[in-house]
Amino acid sequence: MEPQRSPLLEVKGNIELKRALAKAPSRLPLPGSRLKRGPDQMEEDLEPEKKRTRGLGTKVATSRPRATALTTVPQTQGQTAVPKVPRKTGPRCSAAIATVLKNQKPGPAVPAQKPGTTAAPPVVGRKKPSKRPAWDLKGQLCDLNAELKCCRERTQMLDQENQQLRNQLREAQQQATALGTERRTLEEELARMRAQAEQGQQELGNLSTRVLELEERLGTQEGLVQELQKEQLELQEERRGLAAQLEEQERRLQASEAALSGSQAELASLRQEAAAQADLLAKREERLHGLEMERRRLHNQLQELKGNVRVFCRVRPVLPGESTPPPGFLLFPSGPSGPSDPPTRLSLSRSDERRGTLSGAPAAPTRHDFSFDRVFPPGSGQDEVFEEISMLVQSALDGYPVCIFAYGQTGSGKTFTMEGGPGGDPQVEGLIPRALRHLFSVAQELSGQGWTYSFVASYVEIYNETVRDLLATGTRKGHGGECEIRRAGPGSEELTVTNARYVPVSCEREVEALLHLARQNRAVARTAQNERSSRSHSVFQLQISGEHAGRGLQCAAPLSLVDLAGSERLDPGLALGPGERERLRETQAINSSLSTLGLVIMALSNKESHVPYRNSKLTYLLQNSLGGSAKMLMFVNISPLEENVSESLNSLRFASKVNQCVIGTAQANRK
Ligand code: ADP
Ligand code: MG
């Protein structure tokens, strides 16, 4: 079986075939078109030629002698018969035949007659007619006829042969056409093959690039694999370490489990113990609550025993630059138990220059003795003063309204007592910051017993019967806008001041900020109206709300700290200019509100049916802090100077009246 040839090999075969064809014209005297024919075809084409040549050869073999014979024929005769041969075969044909004969192997001397070939009368070996005598015209004619006949036969034969050659030529041309077509097909195929080859080449190039890429990737992957193997080794090492650790941990765990089971047993017993403790704790809490309620009750009882209306007298020290009063001007006699007792009495001596003796000598000074719940001589510190009132602050936390006033003439130390001295020195801190700090710390302690407290602060001033907010900020700062005192709601006991800020506070810093803001507001106002602060009442109110969620208990009470306006009167002998008239109106308003305060306290003390709260803005605003369940404390601030003796006496008399009051048994505001 012949192996399958590749298209490339086929192309190569075709190319060889073409080369053979190109060589062919040197062998074959065929027309140009025959050059394109294949070698086999050429062989076939050659065959009739051979035949012809052979035929011719025969003829040549026969004609040669005949030609020789013809040479003997006269030129004229020869010219009639011979010219046909070169016409039929032609010099080209003869040359071709000669070439073919030359290229062919020498054949047999006498080629065999091919079957089918028209048997020409054998000329070879025919006996050459002897030369006829000139006279033998008949014989010559006979010869010529014979010659003519021979020539005709030959012509006929040559025609046939010519015809055959034409046929062969046609065939050859057809074959050439077919071969041309085949060649074109082959050329197309060759072009396709070349394109395929090019494509193959390109693909090969791509594949090579891809192979290179893959090799590169392979290299990278191999590197990675090596790294991973290294890592794997490390991990295996680590795993071994961890396994060892795990073993150790498991061992420990077992030990721990053993310990745990022991601990669990212990825990169970501890739980039992804890349950018992919780039980005990609950009982103790219950008892503690009972005790707390008892404490509140007793505390209140104590406060009541001390009096629901208490008056403390405070004498400020002589300030630098002030004239020292004569000795004995102010005396602080000791209590019944001697100097260890806190002073409660004050004695003021007044020498009345108007009263003269008959002899003209000055009258002996008059002594005025006053007794209060407590008297603070000039050397008493702020802490000492606060200690006395801290019990009242505790009452406010327990749900009792508390109201503390500072009463006295301008410059007697009211603001110092309430807010404190200048410079922010903690030693001279006043009652307001101290009271609030105390409240916050006690509320914190009570939170341990389940009490939650909240505090909301407000700070207003009442000047000339108008209320202004001292906590106003922004554009309202200093001017405060006018405020109105209104009931919180229809039928509500609670009072609020419209346009005033109510600020929740929970720490000292917030309170300090509020006091600072109030001072700023007063300072701005002072520029507008001369020393307004001393001509107005400042009311700091703290609404205290407490709740015991566990027991559903609630308590709420206001703590009011009031720095009253200067209690001094106008000198009736003064000439009344426009400024003085204004001052007179201010003073009248102040005096009216202060006397209303006295009247309200008296009415409460005498349990009168009508209490004139509405007669002044101050008493109207404070009515909830002054009622039956309220506790009231009044500081009467006294100047130590002799020149202020008249005002001091007025203040002490007013305070003494208040001190005689007892407001009914206080009831905590419990809900
Ligand atoms: P008021 O408010 O009654 O008009 P102030 O509180 O402004 O009087 O006191 C007047 C001056 O006396 C202030 O300079 C104040 O610092 C000073 N002062 C008042 N009380 C005391 C005191 N107990 N110790 C020291 N200085 C005081
Ligand atoms: Mg003041």
From TrEMBL:
Residues 308-661 form the Kinesin motor domain. Residues 24-90, 105-133, 324-370 are annotated as: Disordered. GO terms for biological process: cell division; microtubule-based movement; mitotic metaphase chromosome alignment; mitotic spindle assembly. Keywords: ATP-binding, Cell cycle, Cell division, Coiled coil, Cytoplasm, Cytoskeleton, Endosome, Microtubule, Mitosis, Motor protein, Nucleotide-binding, Nucleus, Phosphoprotein. One of its GO terms (cellular component) is microtubule. Residues 329-338 have a biased composition (Low complexity). ATP binds at residues 408-415. Minus end-directed microtubule-dependent motor required for bipolar spindle formation. May contribute to movement of early endocytic vesicles. Regulates cilium formation and structure. This is Kinesin-like protein. It comes from Delphinapterus leucas.
